[in-house]
Amino acid sequence: MQSMRIGGVHEHFNYPWHLAIEHQLFEKKRVKINWKTCRGGTGEMCQLLLSNKLDAAILLTEGAVKFIAENQQFFIANVFVKSPLVWGVHVPFNSTITQYNNIFDHPIAISRKGSGSHLMPIVDAYFKQKNVLDSMKLKI
């Protein structure tokens, strides 16, 4: 039986992997999957790939491209989800924030340092500094 070490984050899009492992669907094809949940996200998975501790990882394409661009020794074997990852700024229904430009004077919640929710406020701050937002006339 072939064995594979697969890494992924604890997110909904990896649920099919967990179901298939639970129902031994891979074993029926003579493949043993050793799943590793990577709480450190894309960065952790890239490091595990580089150190040969994973055979494959389900990670964000943006992160994979970044590591590949830094001359890392792995490649994108397949696209798992073909729709783009869409980020949004979400506020409570009764919030005083009614336009996108109003978010900059308020705290922003992130899931973890280095995550997409951490990256997006940095991108927003960069665009605000460059006055890009004023020309975009964005509203929420």
How would you describe this structure to a colleague?
The chain is of the alpha/beta class. The protein has two domains: about 1-70; about 85-140, no CATH class. The protein is built from five helices and three strands; from the N terminus they run E-H-E-H-E-H-H-H. Strands 2-1-3 form a three-stranded parallel β-sheet, covered by helices on one side. Strand 1, helix 1 (about 15-20) and strand 2 form a beta-alpha-beta unit. The longest helix has 14 residues, at about 115-130. The termini are far apart. The model has no long low-confidence stretch (mean pLDDT about 85).
N to C succession of SSEs: EHEHEHHH
Percent in strands: 5-15%
Q: Sheet with the most strands?
A: 3 strands, parallel
How many domains? The number is 2
Average pLDDT number = 83
Shape: elongated
Low-pLDDT windows of residues:
none
Distance between the termini: 53 Å
Helix content percent band: 25-40%
Summed up, the helix count is 5
Class inferred from helices and paired strands:
alpha/beta
Strand line-up of the largest beta sheet: 2-1-3
**Number of DSSP-assigned strands:** 3
Radius of gyration: 19 Å
